[in-house]
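--- STAGE predict ---
source: upstream dedup step, 1 unique chain passed
mode: sequence only
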Amino acid sequence: MAIGVCIVEDDREIRELLSDLVLASGQFDFLGGFETAEDLMRAFRKLQPDVVLMDLQLPGRSGIECIRELKLKRPETQFLVCTVFEDNERVYEALLAGATGYMLKSSDGNSLIEAISSVHRGESPMTGVIARKVIENFTKRKPSVDYAEKLTEREREIVEYLSRGFRYKEIASQLGLSTETVRTHIRNVYEKLQVGTRTEAINKIYGNK
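--- STAGE serialize ---
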């Protein structure tokens, strides 16, 4: 089954270019292009896209707000940020909200097409400059000792990977564990921290700057 793709971009010219790129690839089921986050949110339940190519600076609700809300409604939808912004804080906030990939609009068409396929496969595609900024931002955040002490060494290790945008399957591969074992550890983390989502857990551990 073809990967269902939506695009959210307020610049009409860029939205049409991205739409043409997706359609021309012949790899995806293009479900629609939207000017605002609100437009996507109204159609989201009906369309149930596999991947959303999401701009961040939008009229009305921001892309980060949109990702955060829709990710809770349908966790299996992957959000691939496509934006001109590359500042550390915005990158980190997008990943905390639930984005699983982050590309710049200056990326070439082939890279964007591959990124859509990649994020659907469970990977976290990022341009080189973005990957470096994620690491830089992460290293500036020190874990809260009070909350970190509640976790085992393995649980802290897994939360560290979560904070860097890794998905369960990727964490399992990095640590030589099964995906189900990673899920079990994360459930234990949620219980110990009294949270219900990845974002809440990371904010509790790394909320201080």
